[in-house]
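Retro notes, item 3 of 5
We never archived the inputs for the zinc ion complex last cycle. Fixing that now. Sequence and ligand:
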Amino acid sequence: MDQKKYTITTSSWKYNFMIIKKSLILSFMLTPFTILSQDCSEINKKRVTRLQADIITLASNEMEGREPGTNGEIKARDYIISRMQEIGLKPKGTDGFIQAFTYSEGDAAIQAHNVVGFIDNDAEKTVVITAHYDHLGYGGSGSKYKEPSQIHNGADDNASGTAALLELAHLIKNNNIKEHNNFLFIAFSAEEKGLLGSKYYVMNPSLNLNEINYVLNMDMLGRMEPGMALTVEGLGSSLIWESSLKEIECDAFPLTLKKRENGPSDHAPFYEAGIPALHFWTGKHDDYHKPSDDAEKINFRAESQIISFIEALILLIDSKGKVNFHLREK
Ligand SMILES: [Zn+2]
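Structure as it came back at the time:
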């Protein structure tokens, strides 16, 4: 045996071991942080305060129920833009953060506005996070309330999801992690008119659809009660979802997992376009589509925990590459 060679081999082994050791130490250093950020039971007071501010503002009478084509929609749109700017998102609409589109209602042409912001991590794929911000205005055909018209504030539906979208943007922007994905945040309008904002976006995307890794949609996250489950739908859209969701340790609430990929919210048009998509919600209630869907009925602390759960999912699958689409046999 060549002694010199042996020495070199030994030292290169030593060197490799040092690298392995260093990366082990690094991963130990990172692990507690990852576990902490995945502990969804913990209540983050600052987060609760931000959620309260966003939901109370969006569900205030000043926004008049955020119906597309009204001043209330414009006020809500501009509030979301100002929050996205404050968080530090890049505009990714067609006119800054705005993507305007028109639809007809009877003889009238209504202009509505999606709001689109971006976190660029120089990655190949982009995770799309969505929530609609429009609601029923003063009622109309979508209302379950049969008395004279009143403002439908839509605190749960869907100021709660919009606030969660802004909070996830804040978390991802400020977590000091450069994820392996970019993140696109879309607050849709005209969901209540038949998913018009998300259908329009999928037909007129501001990035190439095949760059999208997967979609997470949030519609009604505000009415968690003790013992209630968080419902996650769309598990049929990829085989990765069920095991990933079950991997997240979270004692705060149980999960109800559903395969249904094309349920009635903004994730459905993405699924139809061949993109894996999940939908999160806390379920229907007596105030659903009524003027009584107000901010004081929101469980902000539970919503904060749900956001931690969604954040944990994003981080868990971040380094796993493209989430493969699965088309369920009918
Ligand atoms: Zn909704």
